Amino acid sequence: MNKPLDPRIGHSVCPHDCPSTCALDVELTADGRVGRLRGATDNAYTAGVICAKVARYSERIEHARRLTVPLIRQGAKGSGDFVTASWDAALDLVAEKFLEAEARFGAESVWPYYYAGTMGLVQRDGIHRLRHAKGYSRQFDTICTNAAWTGYIAGTGKLAGPDPREMALADCVVIWGTNAVATQVNVMTHAIRARKTRGAKIVAIDVYETETVRQADMGLVLRPGTDAALACAVMHVAFRDGHADRAYLARYADCPDDLEAHLATRTPEWAAAVTGLSVAEIEAFARLVGTTPRTFFRLGYGFTRQRNGTVSMHAAASVATVLGSWQHEGGGAFHNNGAIYTLNKMMIEGTDIPGRMTRNLDQSKIGRILTGDAEALHHGPRVAAMLVQNTNPVSVAPEQSLVREGFARDDLFVCVHEQFMTETAAMADVVLPATMFLEHDDIYKGGGHQYLLFGGKLVEAPGEARENHYVHVELARRLGAEHPGFAMSPREHVDWLLRHSGFGTLAELEAGRWRDCQPAFRTAHYLDGFAYPDGKFRFRPDWANVKAPNDGPMGPWEDMPSLPDYWPVIEEADTAHPFRLVTAPARSFLNSTFTETAGSVKKEGRPEVMIHPEDAALHGIDDGALVEMGNGRGRVSLHARHFSGLKRGVVIAEGIWPNGAHDDGTGINALTGADSIAPFGGAAFHDNKVWLRPV
Ligand SMILES: Nc1nc2c(c(=O)[nH]1)N[C@H]1C(S)=C(S)[C@@H](COP(=O)(O)OP(=O)(O)OC[C@H]3O[C@@H](n4cnc5c(=O)[nH]c(N)nc54)[C@H](O)[C@@H]3O)O[C@H]1N2
Ligand SMILES: Nc1nc2c(c(=O)[nH]1)N[C@H]1C(S)=C(S)[C@@H](COP(=O)(O)OP(=O)(O)OC[C@H]3O[C@@H](n4cnc5c(=O)[nH]c(N)nc54)[C@H](O)[C@@H]3O)O[C@H]1N2
Ligand code: SF4
Ligand SMILES: [Mo]
User: Fold this and answer.
1) If 0-12 CB within 10 Å is exposed, 13-18 middle and 19+ buried, where does residue 648 land?
2) What is the DSSP letter of 253?
3) Whose CA is nearest to atom 45 of ligand 2?
4) Residue ranges of domains in the chain, CATH in brackets
5) Which numbered ligand comes closest to the C-alpha of 595?
6) Quick one: which of 343, 376, 366, 421 has its CA closest to 112?
7) Average pLDDT of 131-150?
8) Is residue 526 within 8 Å of 244, Cβ to Cβ?
9) Of 171, 230, 544, 666, whose CB count within 10 A is highest?
C-alpha cells in the first residue's frame, strides 16, 4: 500500500508523450492549488527523479493564458477574433457543422484528429469511440513511433524487451539514438546506477554532442542516417573476432550463416566511410560490446526518424542477437514495452462497432490531406470538418506550408479542444477549453517501463475547462452516436478496462498506485524463443508483412535490403543543399508543449541552428547571425550558433518552436517532409537536406 502519509501530497502520473511516464508526488496547498511535483521514490523506475519542466508544473497549470471559456470565431480564419460562448452553444455549433458535412459529403468527410498530448487511455483514445460510432474517417498514426516499432518487431516479432530496470545491472549500457538526458531522464538514472555500482561503461550514439553524449564514457557522433552501417561493422567484427555467439545463433536466429557471409564486406573501414566515425572508434565500440556479455542496448526513436530508419532499428537490434546479449540479466535490446499490456480497449475505443473500418488517413500527411491531394485522401471526399484534441499540427506536422494552407480553408470547419491558444487553435472555428491531467481521472501505461498507473483528479479546473471525455459524450449525444461507453464516467472506464484485461479493479490500482506488468525473465529475454512461430529472431524480415497495415506496405518498401545493411535512401546533401538538417528535441520543451511557459522559453533562448565553425566560415555565417535555411519545401529564419560537436555538413535545430517565434513566422516543420518511411509509414523529421545563407 502506498497511501500518502502526508495528506498534502497527492499521487499522480505524468501524462506527457514521454517514454518515462513518471509516477508523481504532487504538493497540494491548503487552498487546493498545486505546488512542486516530485518523482515517486517508491516507484522502481521513476526512482524519485523527474525532469525540470514537469517539476515546475504549477507554472503551466496556473498559467495566465490558459483557456477557460469556449470561443467561437467571429473574424477571418486565424485572425484571433473570437467571442466567448456557453458550452452548449459551442457544442451545438460543432454538432450542426459535423451533421452538415456528413449530409453533404458523407461521414468520412469528418476527420477527428488527435495525438498524445495526454497519454491517458480514456481521455486520449475515447475520440475513437465517437469516430467509430459515426463512421468518420480514421487516423493512421504515423508521426512518431512507426519506423522504430516496425524495425524492432521485424527482428523480435514483438514490441517488448528486457525489464528496463535491468539497465542498472548491466556492464555496458548503449544509449542509441535517444538524447535521454533531455527526452527520458530516467534512462540515465538506471545507467548511472550501473556505472556507480558495477563500473559499467555508458556509450551514447548520436549525430551531435548532446548532454547524453557528454555524460557517456564513449560518445559516438556519426552522420545522420548511417547507424545501420555502424551496426553492420560491429557485427562484422563480432564474427571476425569470435565474439558472435554461434551456439546461441544456431538456436535463436533464422539465418546466421547468410548474415555472416553478407557482412564479410561490411568492414570497419567501409563503415567509417559511411558514418564519418574513425576505424578506431568503430573497433573500440565493437570490442567493448563484443567482450561485455551484459550489454543493454537502449534503442531510442531519434535514429529512426530517417528514411532508412526502420532498417537501422532492425540492424541495431540485430547486434544484440549476434552477440547473444539477450541471454544475460542486464543484457539485450530494449525499445518499448507496448506489447506487455494486453488491454481490452473495446469500451474506450468502441472497437466492437460494426462498419468502423473507414478510410485510414495518414496523420503525417495532414497538409496534403487538407489541401485536397487525391492520393492522400484515398480518392475519397475532401475533409470538411475536424475535431482536434491533444495535438498541435500547425506547429508539429511536416510540410507545414501545406498544413497552414489547409487550416486556412474557408470551407473547412475546425473545432480545437485545447489548454492553450496554440497555433492550431488560433486557426479554429470553435475553441474549447481543456482540463490538465491533475484536473481529471485517467490510467496510463509506461512505454519505457513496465507499469500501469492511475492518476486521479486532484484539483479543480480553472473556469469552464472540461475534460476530453466530456466533449466525446456531449458530441455523441448531439450527433446521435450510440455506444455504452458514452454513458460511463472516466473512472468507470478505467475499472471496466482493468476488469476485462485481467488486471484487477480500479479500487485495487488506486490503492497500490501502479501495477508492475513485467513478464517473467525467460519471456522478456526471449529465452523460450522470439515471437515468431519458429521462435527465431529474423535477420531476414518479411518487410511487407512485419505489421499488417490494412492499406498495405508503403514507401519504397520493395527496395528494402533483405539483411541488415546501410540503405542509402536518405535525403543526401547536394550542391544546392550542402547540409543535412536534424530537428532534435529541446530539453525544456516537449514537442510544442511548454513553449508557453516562461521558465522553459528562458532556458531555450531563441530558435537557433547549430553549425560547425568551419562550415560557417566557408559560408560566411557569423556566430549569432540571423540566417535563412531552406529547401524545396520551404524556408525559415533563425540564428546560427557555432558548435564543433557535430560532423561537417550536418546542422541541428533543437525544438519545435512556435512558428511565431521565428522572425518570418514560419516554423522548422516548413522544411520537413511527409513522404512515408518504408515499409509502414512515419515522418523522417531528422532527414532533411537544406541550404543556409546569411541574411
Ligand atoms: N525534452 C523533451 N522530451 C521529449 C520530447 C521533446 O520534444 N523534448 N519529445 C517526446 C516524444 S513525443 C518522443 S517520441 C520522445 C523521443 O525521444 P528520443 O527517443 O530521444 O528521440 P528523438 O527526440 O527523435 O531524437 C533523439 C536523438 O536522436 C538523434 N538523432 C537524429 N538522427 C539520428 C541518426 O540518424 N542517428 C543517431 N544515432 N541519432 C540521431 C537526435 O540528434 C537526438 O539527439 O521524447 C519525448 N520526450
Ligand atoms: N521538427 C520536428 N517535428 C516533430 C518532431 C521532431 O522531432 N521534430 N517530433 C514529432 C513527434 S515524435 C511527435 S509525437 C509530435 C507531437 O506533437 P503534438 O502531438 O503536437 O505534441 P504535444 O506538444 O505533446 O501535445 C500537443 C497538445 O496537446 C495538448 N493537450 C495536452 N493534454 C491535453 C488534454 O488532456 N486534452 C486536450 N484537449 N489537449 C491536451 C497540449 O496543450 C498541446 O498543445 O511532434 C512531431 N513533430
Ligand atoms: S521525464 Fe517524461 S514522464 Fe517524467 S516527468 Fe518529465 S516529461 Fe513526464
Ligand atoms: Mo513522439
Assistant:
1) middle
2) B
3) 396
4) 71-141+348-437+462-513 (3.40.50.740), 147-338 (3.40.228.10), 579-694 (2.40.40.20)
5) 2
6) 366
7) 97
8) no
9) 230
Alpha carbon distance 668, 396 (integer Å):
9
* pLDDT, position 547: 78
pLDDT at 6 (0 to 100): 56
| Residue 205 DSSP one-character state | E
Which residue(s) pair with 452 in the sheet? Answer: 445, 515
- Among all bound ligands, the one having the nearest atom to the CA of 117 is 2
Residue 120 pLDDT > 90, yes or no? yes
Q: Report the pLDDT value the prediction gives residue 548, as an integer from 0 to 100.
A: 60
| pLDDT higher than 50, residue 634 | yes
The mean of the pLDDT values for the chain is 97
Could you tell me the pLDDT band of residue 2, with boundaries at 50, 70 and 90?
very low
User: What confidence tier does 552 reach under pLDDT thresholds 50, 70, 90?
Assistant: confident
Whether the CA torsion 338, 341, 345, 348 is positive or negative: it is: negative
Residue of 364, 309, 317, 359 whose CA lies nearest to 138: 359
Protein residue with least CA distance to atom 33, ligand 1: 303
Give the number of whichever ligand sits closest to the CA of residue 435: 2
- Closest by Cα among 441, 512, 449 to 42: 512
Strand partners, 537: 253
Other C-beta atoms lying within 10 Å of the C-beta of residue 36:
11
Which atom of ligand 2 has the smallest separation from the CA of 432?
38
Q: Please give all residues whose beta carbon lies within 6 A of any atom in ligand 1, as ranges.
A: 17-18, 144, 177-179, 182-184, 205-208, 210, 224-225, 227, 300-303, 305-306, 582, 584-587, 589-591, 686
Probe ligand 1: pick from 183, 303, 390, max atoms within 8 Å of CB? 183
Return the sign of the alpha-carbon dihedral for residues 80, 82, 84, 90: negative
Residue-by-residue DSSP string for 463-514: TT-B-HHHHHHHHHHHHT---GGGGS-HHHHHHHHHHTTTS--HHHHHHHSE
Q: What pLDDT digit, counting tens, does each position of 642-675 carry?
A: 999 999 999 999 999 999 999 999 999 999 999 9
Counted residue by residue, the chain has a size of 695
| Element counts in the chain: helices (H) and strands (E) | 25, 25
Q: Which residues are CB-contacts of 382 (< 8 A; sequence separation ≥ 6)?
A: 105, 109, 372
pLDDT tens profile 496-538: 999 999 999 999 999 999 999 999 999 999 999 999 999 999 9
